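Usage

Read records sequentially. Each one opens with the input sequence:
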Amino acid sequence: MVINDHSIRFLELIQENPPTPQRWLECFLPPGIITDGKIVDFDSLSSILEECIDEWKIRRHSIRCIFPEPLVIIRKVTIPADVCSRR
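and closes with the structure output:
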């Protein structure tokens, strides 16, 4: 499942070597739900996702969500042990 500013896309793969696409679906989002990679209207997005899950019959399926964003930065951060053990 890929979520971006304008749509939610779903691709189901058959676990072969290499994986084979079985079906793909898309739901276009109304303007203003996600803007510049930020969720602006969480309630509407949640409702739309619920509708997609029901319509696509993927409830209780394992999925991977991808939120493409060209400005995402992933880095390693060392956290001191005394910070991790605080309660």
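Summary fields computed downstream for this record:
- Helices lie at 42-56, 81-84.
- The two ends are 36 Å apart (CA to CA).
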